[in-house]
């Protein structure tokens, strides 16, 4: 029987790339969410919170964007949802915010960004 070789990960971070229909609106949206922006190029930024980050690019493909989902684990989903409500993102950006749902595996609330990327803010039941 052949033994498979496995890669040993000593990863330091993972950073997804997401696109933006309107780059300036998306930049403002993510700054409002509390991410720190580092501009890398006129059409490319990295957004950070603590040791976590993602890249935002001035590129839009409807099929790709509307099928992109990101899960961000947070300490307290209900608290986080209430913080999102205070930001008035639905009025300011016309985005969709869905209240917290509690399931067997944990809890999560949902937020679509201005381009259509679906964010899951959740916590796993340990």
UniProtKB/TrEMBL annotation:
InterPro entries: Glyas_Bleomycin-R_OHBP_Dase
SUPFAM superfamilies registered for this protein in UniProt: Glyoxalase/Bleomycin resistance protein/Dihydroxybiphenyl dioxygenase
Name recorded for this polypeptide: Glyoxalase
Organism: Flavobacterium hercynium
Taxonomic classification: Bacteria, Pseudomonadati, Bacteroidota, Flavobacteriia, Flavobacteriales
